[in-house]
Amino acid sequence: MTDPLHKDLLDIAQEAARRAGALLRDGRPADLAVAATKSSPIDVVTEMDIAAEKLITGLIAERRPDDGILGEEGGTTEGTSGVRWVIDPLDGTVNYLYGLPTWSVSVAAEQDGETVVGVVTAPMRGETFHAVLGGGAWATGAWDGERRLACRPAPPLDQALVSTGFNYVAEVRTHQAEVAQRLIPLLRDIRRGGSAAVDLCDLAAGRLDGYYERGLHAWDLAAGDLIAREAGALTGGRPGERPSGDLTVAGTPGVFEPLQRLLEGLGAWHD
Ligand code: IPD
Ligand code: CA
Ligand code: CA
Ligand code: CA
């Protein structure tokens, strides 16, 4: 680790993710209910999404008051330092609401518009992933201590295990279901984990060969995208573009391009 700013940002991101993860794990009310809905009746927010974001934004404001923040639940401020934090305080809210274990806290820091630090913690798995630009991707886990991540060697696409997700807006998910239906016979199988950040970290950890989704926001993918890339995966959007709300595609080298071409052929980002 050479850049002292990156080290400082990593320390803060790890502390914020750890504390928010503990709050979510230990503070989940037994009678947790939906507090509000957003883009559609199934796009839900709980009091815990909001509490986790407040904890993270409060910590950042205390440590680095001049930084900007983009938080899913509205904890957004302009900054003057050139650093902006991109936060998903609870990625996988629907899993969390139902008591399913796949959910995470995702904290990324950008410097002059480029993601330089990403931390994703998945408390029910006992795992935390992190990456610093140029420094590789790392995981600490209950299973195997700290280890450097490397995505797996690419299989042919018809033997690739690919994860995806579905947007909350009815027309978008209907189209996504049609694309997935046409994709399944061309792959080993499809997974739908429920946390985009965990999907990208699982790709980094060699547990998936690819991932794609339409309709993601910056907070869903900022940290996971850096972690996947630092583990040797390729990520993008529509051909020649960076990942975006139109399309996010990620894969091991060898799976990424064929998957992106296939999705293009299936019109994955059209209505
Ligand atoms: C969602 C999760 C899910 C993905 C959705 C996201 P949220 O984030 O990442 O896996 O399929 O597109 O919106 O709302 O649980 O933070
Ligand atoms: Ca949400
Ligand atoms: Ca999310
Ligand atoms: Ca969220």
Describe this structure in words.
One of its GO terms (biological process) is signal transduction. The chain has 271 residues and is α+β, with helices and mostly antiparallel strands. It folds into 2 domains: 4-148, 2-Layer Sandwich (Fructose-1,6-Bisphosphatase, Chain A, domain 1); 157-265, D-Maltodextrin-Binding Protein, domain 2, CATH 3.40.190. It is built from 7 helices and 14 strands. The protein has a 7-stranded mixed sheet with strand order 3-4-5-6-7-8-9, with helices on both faces. A 5-stranded mixed sheet has the order 11-10-12-14-13, with helices on both faces. Strand 6 and strand 7 (127-132) form a beta hairpin. Helix 1 (4-26) runs antiparallel to helix 2 and helix 5 (196-204) packs parallel to helix 6. The protein is globular, with a radius of gyration of 18 Å. The model has no long low-confidence stretch (mean pLDDT 95). Residues 88, 91-93, 165-167, 194-196, 213, 215-216, 220 line the site of D-MYO-inositol-1-phosphate.
Defining traits:
single chain; 271 residues; alpha+beta; Fructose-1,6-Bisphosphatase, Chain A, domain 1; D-Maltodextrin-Binding Protein, domain 2; 7-stranded mixed beta sheet; 5-stranded mixed beta sheet; 7 helices; 14 strands; globular; binds D-MYO-inositol-1-phosphate; binds calcium ion; histidinol-phosphatase activity
